[in-house]
Amino acid sequence: MAQTDPTREQTPALALSHPLRTGALSTRKPTRFDLAPDAATRKAMAQELGLIDLPYFRFKGEIRPAGHRDFMLEAVLEATVVQACSISLAPVKSGLKETALRRYLADWVEPEADEVEMPEDDSFEPVPEVIDVGGVAMEALLLGLPLYPRAEGVDLGEAVFAPPGAEPLRDDDLKPFAGLAALKQQLESKDDG
Asked: Closest Cα to residue 83, out of 74, 96, 66, 100?
């Protein structure tokens, strides 16, 4: 019976995993991949990302050599996702098409300063022993999801609260010129009467 090392950190398994050892990647030509998971895998991916459904998913691209020991991953993510509406929780279907780009550098040096200026292009990473194309695909899907999906015709509405016996304040009452509008209305009614 195999024993596990309790001191070794366990990484949760991703619903979609497609590991490629960087030592086995060609340094002369691209290594192509085309991930189109089956229904059971898409269901597990949807569950992992908190989606209602993931009816379609495809992640197609390549890892190509960039220089002597560096690699570049470039792929196109196409997916159809079903999320809960951020207001009504009704299902909202969205189509996604995103480009994922990662640059793996052999001579990557981790910045040591306390305050590091973040570069505009954050696609650079050190070359790992294994590039999990499925993990990159899951990350690209997560980053591409609409933050606040909204079902068609759903409006946030207006919440009105007040203590018993008091007139509730509405959003219009809190606007800077709401009092001027009420004053104008009073003046107009005095002029007519």
From this structure: 96
